[in-house]
Design brief:
The complex is a heterodimer of chains A (401) and B (409).
Chain A lengths: L1 H14 L2 H38 L3 E6 L15 H8 L4 E16 L2 E10 L4 H9 L3 E4 L9 E4 L1 H4 L13 E4 L2 E9 L5 H4 L2 E4 H7 L7 E6 L5 H16 L8 E5 H44 L1 H9 L4 H39 L12 H28 L2 H6 L2
Chain B lengths: L1 H14 L1 H39 L3 E6 L20 E2 H8 L4 E5 L2 E9 L2 E9 L4 H8 L6 E4 L9 E4 L1 H7 L9 E4 L2 E9 L5 H4 L1 E3 L2 H8 L4 E2 L2 E5 L5 H15 L9 E5 H44 L1 H9 L4 H40 L11 H27 L3 H6 L2
Parallel strand pairs in B: 5-10, 7-9
Antiparallel strand pairs in B: 1-12, 1-13, 2-11, 3-12, 4-5, 4-8, 6-9, 7-10, 8-9
The chains are: A alpha+beta (401), B alpha+beta (409).
């Protein structure tokens, strides 16, 4: 029975030839847009989640200032004194502060401006290295006792910053001070990090004449909840700085909180873009409805015959619903294929820019979801025309020419 | 003759109401989305231009940090750059040909307390000598509306931005009130004019000397604002500053540890970014127009098939191929234009709704901008979408063999 319906529906689609093709095109353009945006959005989200995962969920960050202004250098800086306070806080394992500045870097008479970071020499460095996922490629890590030694990022080492490659043993000048390069890092995947240089923390403070940290990172001890430890740190710092609750001039964030706030923004952008793309699906659906109304009119006579030999209203309705559903689903399949190719091309284009995080997601959920969705759009758009066809009076329909 | 064509086309459209309606809806949705996005986008461009006019076209901004990573002409990023600009550089720039005046504020985020309420705001601290005050009076951002300017003797006085005074704190701050900045007491003696830019409307400003003292900053400045003398070209003066200040600081050309931008360039960068975002959004929305066009094409093919017999008769009594083609082109063009007109109305309404929603949320720059060009452009475009979609069906209709067509149906 269902096979017969499908055959009848297919005949309807075939008869209309180019018009059926055009109708499906309307759907597949919409689906291609939605699929590529969802797949890229999902890829971006996965990449970020992965990053946060690798940084360690038990890391807590302390930044100067309250809110976004902290980015731009605050009036009340966080310093080594705060590191000491945090170290003594209940539940804190290791603590490390970080000095980061844009500085003049000179190599073989070539001058560039690059990020230069000062890393602590004690156990605090471990947590920052883990967070930035730094691995030594050649040479050695900075160690206690180093003063004018530096490690260079992957791009700086391999001639992407300077014309010549920077090798272990070479000398570079940072703000006119000579440093010996003792190591280079593996690629991190972020051009800013990969083109930076790392020097010992104390040297950085001296060189940049500052004792302000851009942020302090702390790790919660095993068995302690990082949210609780973050609250403890807040309380200790408040007490140390003699501040009331709510008046903090510093910000304490756990990785989890940071992740959540990022995700909210990404979700908003995704919903907006997908909504915009979904408009073309709506238009495609209207196109299906139009084609189906035409189909009903063209086949009025046929409907009369079918009813005359005993077809029920529901039979007629099913035939037309299947027809519109097939239009939608076929459009969905083609759209899925095109959409995924688009997102893969974007992934490759982004990779060629040196950003390695973005992997377009091709999860079965997206593929089947999109095809199912296209089928539903098709069937829904066909619902009104199908009802009209089902309600035709056999006598009128037979007489129609 | 053309009248008859129109009548034919209109007949065909009105004969099949549901189908025509659905076809038009497709274009309406597309045009609505595109018009709404363009109108909001243009509104934002206009708002930015207004801000630019406030800065003035003869301004130049010098910020620390050279090319490469540090290429951020954002004065707020100053804190991350290890290179520094100082009073010495300000003095030097003042002597460069074509420079009317130069002044270097110190910008720092600060804690501000008023009647036990604490907020974190930006302090933009400006020099207070008579010459500098005269200079600042010429910049829209620094015009005092209520009260007076801070002078050399006012080390414990501040001027505050419009929003700082009127909306940030629960209670309004009035001239003569005391506020605490970083726990030191200041008396408010001036309130700046509202400029519609949160950076300036939400600021506090004390004297430069006091700020340096408080933040322990020596003679550093966050960035240097320069006005160009009348009759000089801002771009030329900008290049001169770049060259001479570079030499003064002992830098080779192309390797400066500071960057110089005219106000126009800075606004330009911002606008370029906005334009790119706008293009992406409109591109995505325009795809629904493409789908709408395909819908018109489907309808036109159907129309041609249904009227095959009619076409045969018309040809038999002497209609030329071009006559038949024109009738169908007019039909599809009308479908497009009808969608366009409704879409434009809906699009603008949507834009205005967004404007109101944004304003209710406190965002001032989101304004729907309604221009004649946009209306005519959208109308013309929808007509094009209609006729181009109708082209293939029309050609098919015009090429029909009269004998076959007559025999059909």
């Amino acid at each position: 029975m269902l096979a017969d319906y499908t055959r009848l529906a297919l005949t309807g689609i075939k008869q209309k030839g180019i018009r059926s093709l055009l109708t499906m095109m309307g759907i597949f353009i919409g689906i291609a847009m939605v699929v590529s945006l969802i797949s890229l959005g999902e890829g971006l989200q996965n990449a970020m989640l992965e990053q946060f995962e690798m940084m360690g969920t038990n890391v807590i960050m302390v930044m100067p200032g309250a809110g976004i202004e902290s980015m731009f250098g605050s009036a009340v800086p966080v310093t080594e004194h705060d590191v000491d306070v945090i170290k003594k806080t209940r539940g804190v394992d290791v603590v490390g502060g970080l000095v980061t500045k844009i500085a003049k870097v000179e190599y073989k008479d070539e001058i560039k401006y690059s990020w230069v970071s000062g890393f602590p020499q004690d156990e605090g460095r471990k947590i920052i290295e883990d967070m930035q996922q730094m691995k030594i490629e050649t040479g050695r890590d900075l160690r206690e006792g180093d003063k004018y030694k530096a490690i260079v990022g992957y791009m700086m080492a391999h001639g992407d910053v300077f014309e010549k490659e920077v090798n272990v043993g070479d000398n570079i000048m940072i703000n006119d001070q000579e440093f010996e390069v003792v190591g280079s890092l593996e690629r991190i995947g972020n051009p800013d990090d990969d083109s930076s240089a790392l020097i010992p923390l104390e040297t950085a403070k001296e060189l940049f004449e500052t004792d302000e940290y851009i942020m302090i990172m702390a790790r919660a001890k095993d068995g302690f909840d990082s949210e609780v430890v973050a609250e403890n740190i807040k309380e200790e710092l408040r007490e140390d700085r003699d501040l009331e609750e709510g008046d903090e001039n510093f910000a304490v964030q756990t990785m989890e909180q940071m992740k959540d706030s990022y995700m909210v923004v990404i979700d908003l952008v995704r919903i907006f873009l997908i909504g915009l793309a979904a408009i073309s699906l709506l238009v495609g659906g209207v196109g299906i409805m139009n084609t189906m109304y035409t189909s009903v009119i063209e086949r009025t006579n046929e409907i009369g015959v079918m009813k005359a030999i005993g077809a029920k209203n529901s039979d007629i309705m099913s035939i037309f619903l299947i027809e519109s559903g097939i239009l939608g689903a076929v459009g969905g399949i083609i759209g899925c294929a095109i959409g995924l190719s688009i997102s893969k091309s974007v992934e490759l284009a982004v990779k060629s820019q040196g950003i390695e995080y973005l992997v377009a997601s091709t999860s079965p959920v997206i593929i089947f979801g999109a095809i199912a969705f296209a089928f539903v759009v098709g069937a829904l758009s066909g619902a009104l025309p199908a009802r009209q066809a089902a309600k035709l009076k056999p006598v009128d329909a037979l007489r129609y020419e | 003759m053309i009248n008859d064509y129109f009548r034919f086309a209109l007949d065909s459209i009105t004969n099949r109401k549901t189908r025509s309606l659905l076809t038009v809806i497709g274009t309406v949705i597309g045009i609505t989305a595109v018009v709404a996005l363009i109108s909001i986008g243009q509104g934002m461009q206009v708002a930015i231009d207004d801000q630019f006019k406030l800065i003035g076209s003869n301004r130049i901004i010098v910020s620390p940090g050279g090319g490469g990573v540090g290429e951020t002409s954002n004065p707020l990023m100053g804190g991350l750059v290890s290179a520094k600009l100082t009073d010495d550089d300000v003095e030097f720039i003042r002597k460069i040909t074509g420079v009317e005046f130069a002044s270097g504020p110190v910008i720092k985020p600060v804690k501000v307390e008023f009647e036990d309420e604490v907020k974190y705001l930006t302090s933009t601290n400006v020099p207070t000598d008579a010459e500098s005050i005269k200079f600042l009076k010429g910049i829209e951002f620094y015009i005092i509306e209520d009260g007076r300017y801070i002078t050399d003797e006012d080390s414990d006085k501040v001027a505050i931005g419009y929003e700082t005074a009127h909306s940030i704190f629960d209670r309004e701050i009035k001239i003569g009130n005391k506020i605490f900045i970083e726990d030191r007491e200041f008396e408010v003696i001036g309130i700046y004019k509202k400029v519609g830019n949160p950076v300036h409307d939400r600021k506090v400003a004390m004297s430069l000397d006091r700020a340096r003292d408080m933040f322990g900053m020596g003679d550093d400045v966050s960035s240097i604002f320069v006005t160009v003398k009348d009759g000089f070209d801002a771009v030329e003066v900008k290049e001169r500053i770049e060259k001479e200040l570079g030499r003064h600081r002992g830098m080779k050309e192309g390797e400066e540890d500071f960057s110089v931008a005219t106000a126009e360039q800075m606004v330009g960068m911002f606008k370029d970014l906005l334009t790119v975002i706008q293009f992406v959004l409109i591109g995505i929305a325009a795809i629904s127009l493409l789908v709408g066009g395909i819908g018109i094409m489907t309808t036109m093919y159907t129309s041609v098939i249904e009227r095959t017999h009619e076409i045969g008769i018309m040809k038999a009594i002497g209609a030329k191929n071009s006559d038949i083609g024109l009738i169908f082109l007019i039909e599809s063009g009308l479908l497009g234009v009808a969608g366009g007109i409704i879409g434009i109305i809906l699009g603008f309404s949507l834009g205005i709704i967004v404007e109101f929603a944004a304003q209710a949320a406190g965002v001032d720059v989101m304004k729907a901008y309604i221009s004649i060009e946009l209306i005519l452009g959208a109308l013309l475009f929808s007509f094009f979408v209609g006729t181009i979609s109708g082209l293939l069906p029309a050609i098919r209709a015009s090429k029909m063999n009269p004998v076959d067509a007559l025999r059909h149906g």
